[in-house]
Amino acid sequence: MSLPFGSFAFNIGGGSNGFTAPMSIIVDKDVGSFTYYKQNNSGKWTNITKAVTLIGNGKAKIDFDLTDGGVFDRDGIANGTIVDPGGVATNKLNPYVIEGETLVGDVSFVEDSTSFMGTLAYNITGGKDKELFTLNSTTGELSFKNAPVYSTTSSNAYIVEVTASGTTSGSEARAITVTVLNSDGANTVTPIVIGACGSSNRLNLLTAPTSNLCQSGIASSVTQANNLFNWSCNSEDVAVVNCSANKVLPVVISDNSSGVSSNTTTTDTEYTTTVTDSSTNSVQATKFISGDKKAEHIAKANGVAVSTATSYVEGTQINVKSSGDVETTVEMLDDSNSTVSIKVEGKVTGDEKAVHSLSVGGKETKATSKVNGTTTTISAVGEVETKATVGAKEIIAQAFADGKATHIIKIGNVESKATIEFAGAQTVMENDGSVKTSVDETQTIGGNPVTVKSVVATDNQGETQTWFEDSNGNTLERTVSQSTPLESGATIDVANDSNGKLQFKIVTPVTREIVIE
Predict the structure, then answer these.
(1) How would DSSP label each residue in 181-214?
(2) Which residue among 177, 217, 446, 473 is buried most deeply as judged by most CB within 10 Å?
(3) Stated pTM of the model
(4) Bridge partners (DSSP) listed for residue 407
(5) Coil, strand or helix: which one is 432?
(6) For residues 386 and 325, what is the distance between their CA atoms, to the nearest angstrom?
(7) Strands, E, within 78-148: which ranges?
(8) Quick one: which H or E segment has residue 27?
(9) Which run of H or of E encompasses 472?
(10) What is the tens place of the pLDDT at every residue in 217-239?
(11) What pLDDT, in 10s, does the model give residues 91-110?
(12) Share above pLDDT 90 across residues of the chain, in percent, rounded to a whole number
């Protein structure tokens, strides 16, 4: 695939949130570019052509749709504005030909000839329509043996396999799909496009999806396996993309405080259960039937809320424990269809008031708050935020669906922040308004693998210290040998540098880096 006119971008504004804009671009048909490609939110270039119409004077009109907040809106937010980087593309594996013309064009697809030895040659080696074509073995120029006729009852797509081979060694086979267009341009022709998942992909759903299965391509039937709804988007055997959605249960509240579990799954109104033990500790668990909020638990000690957890994810589970504690759990899919497990605990005894943990890829990212009145939110996209207020200070610990974590202290207009760029961070929020985040990572020191703990501690004045520890808690040597307090408002990233060494990236009035050697 190439972009003969280069990529370009435009914004479409003024629509309602989530609106769909029909778009058209007109090109010369002789250019051989009858497709519009866009990058989706994962960075993959995808053909989103909806239809092609020949409009006379040697022109072709390419139609496609863009949806605000969809997979092809760069900002990914349904905010009334579509951000569109894309381009008209030529794809040698999906050429177009006008009915009555025999020449398809150059379908040579080898860009790097270093893996071939000897003279490069092209030959027809397969495909269901191989008998209809002839190929110049030297130039890769493909032609119909007889001029094709546009059909009103079929897809007008013809598939032939072409193999490039070196006379000494090296070969590669590709399927070429040739689409025949109507010569008079009176009819709109739907071309072969690469399959792309629709907006139902990666959702959390109670029942199998029946709409929005594919952005492009033809949807297969939806099957269910291992709590997943699975389907594919394909286009005449050219490309198949597998899609899935997470099958979830309704919100369930399990009350085990008296040793008996009672699940409430069918009520059509808001449901609240309150459990009080002999020491006046209580748990209030609520299931919401309407609105964005799905479930909420409130743990109270002596009638005062110790911690609150709110979930915006369908299928949330709340378990009221016999100990008086409460646990809210969520399972959902990340962008690569891996399971993300989220758990928020509310506790009425001991130092810990609330704990959130997010598990992805076998690593647990965790935050513990010791502050009364802590609130935790599980967003619809799998982000977890635990927040507490101590005097004039606001303390925040966040975990994201990819396992990354942040801690933030806000004092007035000053914000000190630390970000851990990989999963597994452990954060503790103290009663005095200070916070510490640490994470273990294996590093090679002196030729030997060593477990190194990166520590970022922000005190209740917003000043931050950073250091490295070995598995025994000993401070390791580093390029900056003293963990002197940094200014309030510092921004710190814990990541690996280009050589794979663990480092702190510190942004203060003077930017500096600390690297583990």
Answers:
(1) E-TT--S-B------EE-TTTT-EESS---SS-E
(2) 217
(3) 0.53
(4) 397, 418
(5) coil
(6) 17
(7) 82-89, 96-98, 103-106, 120-126, 133-135, 141-144
(8) strand 20-28
(9) none
(10) 778 889 988 778 999 887 644 45
(11) 666 777 778 888 887 777 76
(12) 20
User: CA 137, CA 43: separation in Å to the nearest integer?
Assistant: 35
Q: State how far the Cα of 26 lies from the Cα of 50, in Å rounded to an integer.
A: 14
Q: Residues 88, 25: contact at Cβ < 8 Å?
A: yes
Longest alpha-carbon distance in the chain: 90
Sequence-ordered list of residues with C-beta below 8 angstroms from that of 293, at least 6 positions apart, any chain = 310, 311, 312
Residue 310 confidence (pLDDT): 95
| Average pLDDT rounded to a whole number, residues 181-195 | 56
Nearest to residue 263, comparing CAs of 278, 273, 248? Answer: 273
pLDDT one-digit tens code per residue, 455-506: 899 988 888 888 888 777 777 755 443 455 666 777 888 887 777 777 777 7
| Two structure tokens written together for 275 | 């459990």
Q: At 436, which helix (H) or strand (E)?
A: strand 435-445
Task: Work out the end-to-end distance of the chain between its first and last CA atoms, rounded to an integer number of angstroms.
Answer: 44
Read off the amino acid at residue 131.
E
Residue among 488, 460, 456 nearest 371 (CA): 460
Q: Which residues pair with 53 in a beta bridge?
A: 61
Q: Which tokens belong to 271?
A: 């449901």
Provide the token pair at 239.
């490309």
Residue 146 has which token pair? 């007889």
Q: What's the half-sphere exposure (Cβ side, CA atoms, 13 Å) at 123?
A: 7
- How far is Cα 232 from Cα 213, in angstroms, rounded to an integer? 8
C-beta separation of 488 from 469 below 8 A:
no
Provide the H-helix boundaries in 213-307. none
CA-based nearest residue to 406, from 339, 495, 484, 468: 495
Q: Would you call 61 helix, strand, or coil by DSSP?
A: strand
The string over 411-449, giving b where at least 16 C-beta atoms fall within 10 Å of a residue's C-beta and e elsewhere, is: beeebbbbbbebbbbbbbbbeebbbbbbbebebeeeeee
* C-beta of residue 369 within 8 angstroms of C-beta of residue 353: yes
| CA–CA separation, 252 and 7 (whole Å) | 49
Q: How many CB atoms lie within 10 A of CB 316?
A: 30
Side chain identity, residue 408 = I
